Amino acid sequence: MARDRVLVIGDSTRLISKAKSADVSVAYMQKASQFDPSVISQCQQLVLVDYQHVPSAAVMAKALHEIEPIARIVTQTEAAQLVAGHLTDLLGIRGTSERTARLLHDKSAMRALLNEQGIGFVPCEVNPTHEVLRQFVVAHGAAIVKPTMGSGSLGVRRINSVEDVDEVWSWCQSFELGDFQVEKLLVGPELSVESFSESGRHTIIALTAKDTEGGTVELGHVVPAPVSGAEFAEIRELTVRLLDAVGLDDGPSHTEVILTAEGPRVIESHTRRGGDRINDLVKMVYGVDMEEATYRLAGQGVPLDGHLHPADGAAAIRFLTAVPGAVSSVTGVEAAQAVDGVVEVVVSVGVGSVVPELRWSDDRCGYVIVHAEDAESAVRLARRAAGHVAITTEPVAGDPASGTAAPDTLSSILRPYDEVFDPFQVATGTGACSAVAEPCR
Fold first, then answer.
1. Cα distances (Å, whole numbers) of residue 94 to 6, 113, 149, 298, 301
2. How confident is residue 115, by pLDDT bands cut at 50, 70 and 90?
3. Which of 102, 85, 82, 114 is nearest to 250 (CA)?
4. Taking the domain 314-397, which CATH number applies?
């Protein structure tokens, strides 16, 4: 019997290698700038094209489909989600539609839908003027400003009081934030819901607790999140209502929530598994690999068994950070590896690397993963192991903070990654910070 065929867009060699578990063949579409030759042995066909140039991606996808039918499109890459939905519709195959992908990729569209349907209402304004931003904070108190699209906490700023409005507004303009929204700051433990859907049935596989140390960039995760049975039930109900509302039928999803005093509220959601190695934490604890399960949707196997597995202890990740500057030394890795329960220690910088200010997830310097008997122990051991790793830096000339270089903008940070937030949007300049406000109804 011929193997089913998937079109994979933008994923890494490590992710594509998991197609073997589902016995599917792979056609692979990747940007030339992001191409890794090690992927060649994993693919039946390979197309190098800027998949965010939608007309080019559409022509290539149709040609591949005509050569040999594609059963599904697979991507865990955030930059490819909208294109994958568009191509799914174009080819008329099963999978996440462009509508569903956009409702989750575009945070303003998701918030408007949830507020309209009464699914955890959160006050919000899209592209407020300076004065509307001020009045929003006067009315609702502390707030969060963030791009309407994006991930990894890039471009997210907190407004603690009305006294912060002028500074944040100036930053919006200098950072060239583009389309953005302001939402009431949600207060409470931050969690994410790792779920998998089959024919509209949503299985909650795990809850992940997050630690930002009061900032906006995530510095640690632990699975399972320490929540009560009643809290789990509330979070499950909210997540299922969200996924039903956006029309997600099949595949993984990663939904971030805040457990407020009024109940759980959605921050954002994605039509992919969670990043930050959360999939590995889930697999260690529950035995479920959502990356492999995604391929099995197109293959002959059953993606999930339909219920939560008993937890095998807990798993935590702690991210490494450093003072901005040029790395002069890295020490303590062996000591970190010797801590009880440590599974992996990765340092992603070396001597000579330049560590920027912590602006988003990609500015972190590595991580430590621990498997322990419970969540509290896993977090404690991960912190201990991470504490052994010392990344020493020295100031460098041209640091934006020194005033000798141009300040960062959203586009300058994304440029090395060769991606845009919305491949369908025609560039119209950077005047979003002076646009007219639109409420998230």
1. 11, 24, 25, 9, 16
2. very high
3. 85
4. 3.90.1170.50
Mean pLDDT of the chain: 92
**DSSP summary character for residue 363:** G
For residue 82, give the H/E element and its range: helix 81-91
Question: Yes or no: is domain 5-95 CATH 3.40.50.20?
Answer: yes
Query: What is residue 426's predicted lDDT score, i.e. its pLDDT?
Result: 46
Residue span(s) of the chain under CATH 3.30.1490.20 come to: 123-185
Looking at the chain, the number of H-run helices and the number of E-run strands are 13, 20
3-state secondary structure 62-126: HHHHHHCCCCEEECCCHHHHHHHHHHHHHHCCCCCCHHHHHHHHCHHHHHHHHHHCCCCCCCEEE
pLDDT in tens, 51-89: 999 999 999 999 999 999 999 999 999 999 999 999 999
DSSP structural state of residue 404: S
CATH number listed for the domain at residues 123-185: 3.30.1490.20
> What is the pairing mode between strands 72-74 and 45-48?
unpaired
Looking at domain 186-312, its CATH class is: alpha beta
Q: Which residues make up the CATH 3.30.470.20 domain(s) of the chain?
A: 186-312
Q: Which two tokens stand for residue 284?
A: 């260690």
Helix (H) or strand (E) holding 139: helix 130-140
Please state whether the predicted TM-score (pTM) of the whole model is above 0.70: yes
Q: Which of 1, 6, 37 is nearest to 19 (CA)?
A: 6
Q: Which of 203, 314, 319 has the alpha carbon at shortest distance from 251? A: 203
Task: Identify any residues that bridge with 91 across adjacent strands, giving them in sequence order.
Answer: none
DSSP per residue over 376-399, as a string? HHHHHHHHHHHHH-EEEEE--TT-
DSSP 20: G
* Helix 107-116 / helix 98-105 crossing angle, nearest 10 deg: 100
- Tokens 């010392």 label which residue? 390
Q: Which residue has the higher pLDDT, 306 or 36?
A: 36
Predicted confidence (pLDDT) per residue in 30-50, tens digit: 999 999 999 999 999 999 999
Query: Which H or E run contains 73?
Result: strand 72-74
- Residues 211-229: what's their mean pLDDT? 95
